[in-house]
Amino acid sequence: MPARSFQARLLYLIIIVLVLLEAGTLAAVRFAGRQAMERTVVDEVNTGARVFDRILQMRAGTLADQSRVLVSDFAFKNTIALADVDTVTSALDNHGRRVGANAVLLIDLDGTVRADTLRGRYKKKPFPFQTLFRDADSRSADASATVLFESQPYQFVIVPVLAPRPIAYIAAGFAIDERVLADVARVSSLDVSIWSTPPRGRLANTDYASLIHPVRTGDGSRINALLQRSLVEARKPFVALERQVFALSALVLIIAVFAAVLFARTVSSPLRILAAGAGRIGRGEYVEPVVVKREDELGQLAGAFNSMQSAIAAREEQIMFQATHDSLTGLPNRKLFLDRLSQAIAAASRTRGVAGMVMMDVDRFKEINDTLGHQFGDQLLIEIGRRLTQTFPNGTVARLGGDEFAVLFHDARDVTERVAAAFEEPVVLGDVSIDVNASLGLASFPEHADDAGTMLRRADVAMYDAKRNQSGVAVYEPGRDEHSVRRLSLMTDLRQAIARDELELYYQPKVDVRSERVMHAEALVRWNHAVHGVMRPDEFIPLAEQSGRISLITRWVIRKAIAQCATWREDGLDLTIAVNLSALDLFDSELPTFISGLLSEAGLAPEKLLLEITESAIMKDAAYAQKVLRELKRRGVCLAIDDFGTGYSSLAHLKRLPVDELKIDKSFVQNLSATASDDLVIVRSTIELGHNMGLTVIAEGVENAEAWRILKDLGCDMAQGYFMSPPLPAKKFREWVSSRVSSVTMIGGGRSWPKATTPGRKKRRSRKRTKPRSSGLDDGGPRVRRPTLILSAPCQFSPATTSAISDAARSRCCSHMGSGATRTCGASSLPTSRTTTASSSSTTSVPANPSCPRTTNSVTRPSTDTRTTSSTSSTSSTCAT
Amino acid sequence: MVRVLLVFLVAMPLLGATITVRVNDARGRAVSDAVVYAVPEGRQLPLAKKTAVMDQRNRMFIPHVLPVQTGTAVQFPNTDDVRHHVYSFSPAKTFQLPLYKGTPANPEVFDRAGVATLGCNIHDQMSAFIVVVDTPYFAKTVNGVAEIDVDAGRYTVRVWYPDMRAEPQPRSIALTANERLSLTFVAGRANARP
User: What is the distance between the alpha carbons of residues A354 and A297, in angstroms, rounded to a whole number?
Assistant: First the structure.
């Protein structure tokens, strides 16, 4: 039994209470008994003292009576009166013996002893106890007193000898001897002794209750009686009583302890069973029920325990399932997937086998969600999960979150093919048929990663590569993961870029086609990174946008550009300065005021500043953008639409925009030739469109003389590109302009532009050559291609589906026009149903799509570096509606 | 008694002197049954051949105090119907009349001056005094006053009473014929010894 158990405590409690109770009873009995005993003893002793007195008194009376009778004897009187002393003495002796007197004296009336029985020792001497004698003499009657006679306590009785008048007195002395004391002891049950001298000190023996009782004496002597009561004797009955009570208490205690043990056992043993049951439940064992066969509360409690146990088991199962599974699809979640992946890796490392995973991301899922509703998106995810599960009945298929799925495999062969096969058939939900495209990233052990977390990350990187390459599938390339890490560190460095003065502006001229005069200078930002060297905007502007620092950079660029413009002006170079705005800048309501302040500060007319905004940025939130643009326009700032032809804007929108200039996207210009009919048509019609709307039209990406010539023929107003000049630092730009002014004006194809070189440019360009243009930011620098996409389809509405699509969505739907050369993942069109095409490189029909790499990445775009344009980029189409 | 009176009456005209004695106690109260007597100085008087009676009646001695002249014979008649045992252990006269009835044949002669205390051995409460004086001139006070007729001459006047503790100072007086003299004795405390 544990020391602190209920049973033990109950036992202790009962024992303590009982012991206290019984101790109290015993103490009370003892106390009361002792008190009563002491009172009794004191009473007895006091009574004994009275008895002693009384006995002496009675004895004195008896002795007096006897003596009186004695002296009444006529013969005795006669003897006393007439006989000689010897006779008298013998008579005294004789009669004294009759009454048992120890001493008899005959006293004359004058108090002198005439005769005595003590060999005449007192003869002719005054009677020793004159007071007593006078007492008797004064009354002619008898008197008695206790006196000390010959050092012994005596009772003396004096009686007159009457004839009939007193003729003498007889004094009879009776020793207070042991017989007397025995009488007292017998009557009073006390031990009695008598002293003639007072005892000194205290009576040491505490076994007796003692009383020193002074005896009243007739001669002033001190006689004390010691009356003693044996306490041992007096205590005897109480001790017996105490013993009985004690025995009774012990008996009660034993019985109570037995009862308590029995009771505690009946309570504590089921409690122990219950506790053990609770312990099992706590450990997560739910199989064994708690068995307490009782009808009382404890039995009910056991029943409640069992109910609780099964309920907890059920709930735990449910919670466990929820914790490890995705609630929507019922598939394992990321956590469970990682567990299984870890197990698989562990198993593979033991068996020298392979464990790998495919990560899959549904392309443009957000667009589907936004366009067709979340419910539809959810249904789609469920269907995707179902298909994957069907395809890999023995593998682990998990939903990692959002539109990301993962498949665990042990054999890399055919994995991607099987995934692709699963989505060959379009998903039909209700009356909507949708072609599901996905980007797959593959990583495996031991080749790419040796732990689950790393493998997951690397599969993710591979997946994004696939998306970027529009390849549909990518296997992890060693080193790619580290690139992502670099991005993260760049984001940190960007914070300090402005403070460390690491940003620099380059300028690229915009030349009037007809007059060949430099009209504008477009400011393009470079980051001279301490470690990574010169970085182009498309490398860090997206990071700035993500980290919220874009407005700082924009403002820095505008300030620098205006200052440069003012400097040139003072130097005699009167140019309009062009600055790119990020989509996010359009939400900066303070920007117009900021710009006005800078302009007036620099003393520049507002029209000397041209702000270029990409078409897609404007379309992101057309209404709000319009508001900001109007505000800028109101202040006299010139506005241009950048990358025109890639942003799916409608003419209606265009019409409402307060812009002055239209810049044709370089993708249409770079390969412009008389034979490339598509681009030619687009460029021509755009120029016409712009002119018809009263806008200045500029083409960027002019890389050769042929393009220049064609543009001139088409009536384009301005041109920008490497054909004229790459972006140059301010000083070199100034030199370039000066040299150009001094050189002969060249017209037509024979035109040669002054050469200005940008160091390191060639190498970079060649490395990035395969990248298609996708970012609005690129200025000819490296181009990062965002993932490819999955949903593609022409924009055909069937009457049946019309109602499912909002007017807005419909209005933005455009037909697929490009060949989709980059669409390697089977982004085929489906004539039977409406699908949205979101080929990354160009034709997209869902505007305001934040997930679209193009729109999110566009910012301060130094755009016109046409020489870096990828040859693989597909052609694009304008939106029609 | 009658004969005593006769004696006095005969002598009075001849001598003609009277002593009036008053006996008071210390508080001035009259003491009765006190015996006053005058002893002639300088002359020896012959013993009286007189008799006196101490009667015993109703378990009492009557009279309680009986003054007699030395030599007087006293009769102890028992007029009760119970017997008495009259005794005296007094030095003046020690005698016993064991259990008797009637009048004993011989009277007891009190020939020594002094007081004989009488008792009855049967009845402790019975007590009487016979005061034996050496003079014929004595008297017993009645209401504290006694008169003694004496001849002219010198006398010592003394007093005795029952329970006398100490005898008051005797008085020596001289009387002429027909002289009347008054004396007052103050008795001592009541509990005087006999």
Answer: 59
Tell me the shortest Cα–Cα distance from B143 to chain A, in angstroms: 24
pLDDT in tens, A159-197: 998 888 888 999 999 998 888 888 888 888 888 888 776
CA distance B69 to A849: 184
Q: What is the DSSP string of A323-351?
A: HHB-TTT--B-HHHHHHHHHHHHHHHHHH
In the block, residue with structure tokens 């412009």: A672
3-class state of residue A12 by DSSP: helix
CB-CB under 8 Å, B124 with A164 = yes
- When pLDDT is cut at 50, 70 and 90, the band that residue A741 belongs to is low
Give the gap in angstroms from C-alpha A81 to the nearest C-alpha of chain B: 6
Give how far Cα A360 sits from Cα of A61, A422, A472, Å. 139, 12, 10
Backbone angles phi, psi at B51, to 5 degrees: -130, 160
Among A420, A385, A389, A415, which residue's Cα sits nearest to residue A403?
A385
pLDDT at A488: 66
Q: Please give the ipTM for the structure prediction.
A: 0.78
Report phi then psi at A230, rounded to 5. -70, 120
Chain mean position to CA A308: 26
Cis peptide before B63 (omega within 30 of 0): yes
Among the residues of A751-812, which ranges form H helices? 761-767, 799-802, 807-812
DSSP B139: E
CB contact at 8 A, B119 and B80: no
Concatenating the DSSP letter of every residue in A515-539 gives: T--EEEEEEEEEEEETTTEEE-HHH
Contact indicator for A230, A207 with CB cutoff of 8 Å: yes
In this structure, what token pair is assigned to residue A764? 């970079």
A84 forms beta bridges with none
DSSP state of A748: G
Task: For residue A81, give the nearest of B85, B89, B191 by CB distance.
Answer: B89
Helix, strand or coil, per DSSP, at residue B177: coil
In chain A, what is the straight-line distance between the N-terminal and C-terminal CA atoms, in Å? 89
Q: Which pLDDT band, with edges at 50, 70 and 90, does A582 fall under?
A: confident
Sheet holding B51-53, edge to edge: B51-53, B72-75, B108-110
Give me the residue label for tokens 């270029």.
A612
Whether B121 sits inside 8 A of A165 (CB atoms) is no
In whole angstroms, what is the distance from residue A676 CA to residue A814 CA? 23
Residue A296 in contact with residue A39, Cβ under 8 Å?
A: no
Distance of alpha carbon A474 from alpha carbon A462, whole angstroms = 5
Average pLDDT of chain A to the nearest whole number:
77
Residues on chain A touching B85 (C-beta within 8 angstroms): 74
Contact A82 B126 (CB under 8 A): no
* Residue with token string 């007292």: A184
Nearest to A167 among B85, B89, B126 (CB): B89
DSSP B67-100: EEETTEEEE--B-SSS-EEEEEEETTEEEEEEEE
Residues A135 and A142: their CA atoms lie apart, in Å, by 8
| pLDDT tens digit sequence for A12-23 | 888 888 888 888
SS3 track for A239-284: HHHHHHHHHHHHHHHHHHHHHHHHHHHHHHHHHHHHHHHHHHHHHC
Rounded Cα–Cα distance for residues A194 and A176 (Å)? 9
Q: What is the pLDDT of residues A403-414, one digit of tens each?
A: 889 998 887 777
Asked if pLDDT for residue B97 goes beyond 60, the answer is yes
What is the rounded distance in angstroms from the CA atom of residue A672 to the CA atom of residue A674?
A: 7
Q: What angle do CA A490, A496, A499 make, to 5 degrees?
A: 150
Residue of B nearest to A163 (CA): B119
